[in-house]
Amino acid sequence: MSKYVINGGRKLHGTLTTNTSKNAAVVLLNVALLNRGQTILKNVAKIEEVNRILEVLQSIGVSVKWQGGSDVVIQPPKKIDLKKLNYESAVRTRSILFFLSIMLGWQKKFLVPQPGGCRLGKRTVTPHLFALQNFGVKIKTLSKYYEVDASKLHAGKEIVLYESGDTVTENALIAAAQVPGRTVIKFASANYQVQDLCFFLEKLGVKIKGIGSTTLEVIGKKSFNKKLVYEISEDPIESMLFIAIAATTNSSITIKRCPIEFLELELLKLEKMGWKYKILKKYKAKNGRTWLVDLKTFPSRLVALDEKIYARPFPGLNIDNLPFFVPIATQAKGRTLIFDWVYENRAIYYTELNRLGAKVELADPHRVYVTGPTKLKATEVICPPALRPSTTILVSMLAAPGKSILHSVYSIERGYEDLCKRLSLVGAKIEKFD
């Protein structure tokens, strides 16, 4: 397994640029199958999660090729044979759940492998099944697959999602897009990747009202066949990684192309902790819809917040950004309570930072207390099987003087492209060894 060797404790300087969204890419690569014509997705991050999806698509006969370095050209076949699906790649990504809705327009009955991805406790698929029931879809859970019967597919009319989850909302949107008629989706997620999906579907010809809100009205179509080019917007979670690195290493760097609408509360919390930054420029993303900013960070003296830090569905603090407050809190004076209510096991992974000298106390499976400031120390750690907790260890190692080794970094490379090279550009001493 690959590992990172990090010589930490260095002040960083220079410029980092935010890549396009991992979570938008994984849904749009799959949703391209709705279009019987050619789809070109621009500026797709070359990450392991994307590689697994491309392997799945190619295995079922989809023509997939990289163009110009970072664009992906997708052309579905006339028929899809799910019996040839690459099972090993499918079960390594949770995005295989999108096949529950994407295949509705291709086949009446089919099997979808049960998903993998991050191990964060019980991540139930029940909300997806409940959502698709509203479209007349029957789903039976087998030992390794979901058995789907879409022979009585119809518009969902007015539905309430069992939870305001991103992928649940996306599956409901994908189903609604393929069925002529009106579907209203209530308690929808308004998060960045859901908005990107809505923008893509609009370009395909689907009519959607309420983008950015928790109620979406969708007028679907029976089929789609057009040449489509789509620009994926930037990833607020990657911007937050760079922000966390700057805050934890007490460095002054410039971070470009940050999707500000999805970082406003995170920045406010940090500002109240004493963190200093300045917005240099505001402009639209290449999709013409998402607002971006360039910001500059400054060395700061951090203090713990009196209130707990917790995540909520957008417009709350992003669930994937919450873990980055753990390494930041190790450098803040006082005691910080971080409440990770979504996942049963993720807070447990935060205690891995104690190996680097942090003071992280596990209160229960959802809450940790972080006492700071602490001087982090170099060590060796094996990445947990979860993307964001693994990345918080990387952040901490960059702040810890001396040589650290981070083993089994596949979890990180599922979501971030070429981190070693990019961080080296701002003065980090980090190398990857296979």
Task: Describe the fold and architecture.
The protein is 27% helix and 28% strand. The protein has 434 residues and is α/β, with parallel strands linked by helices. It is globular. The relative contact order is 0.16. The model has no long low-confidence stretch (mean pLDDT 95).
Radius of gyration: 21 Å
Strand content bin = 25-35%
Biggest sheet statistics = 5 strands, mixed
The stretches of 5 or more residues where confidence is low (pLDDT under 50) are: none
CATH superfamily of the largest domain: Enolpyruvate transferase domain
- How many β strands by DSSP? 24
Q: Average pLDDT across residues?
A: 95
Task: Please specify the SSE layout and strand pairing.
Blueprint lengths: L2 E6 L6 E3 L4 H10 L7 E4 L5 H12 L3 E5 L3 E5 L11 H4 L8 H4 L6 E5 L12 H8 L4 E4 L3 E5 L7 E4 L5 H12 L3 E6 L5 H13 L2 E3 L5 E6 L7 E4 L4 H14 L4 E6 L4 H9 L3 E9 L6 E8 L3 E2 L5 E2 L14 H5 L2 E8 L6 H5 L8 E6 L2 E6 L7 E3 L4 H13 L2 E6 L2 H4 L5 H6 L4 E5 L1
Parallel strand pairs: 2-14, 3-13, 9-10, 17-19, 18-19, 22-23
Antiparallel strand pairs: 1-23, 1-24, 3-5, 4-5, 6-8, 7-8, 10-12, 11-12, 14-16, 15-16, 19-21, 20-21
Helix pairs in contact: 1-2, 1-7, 5-6, 6-7, 8-12
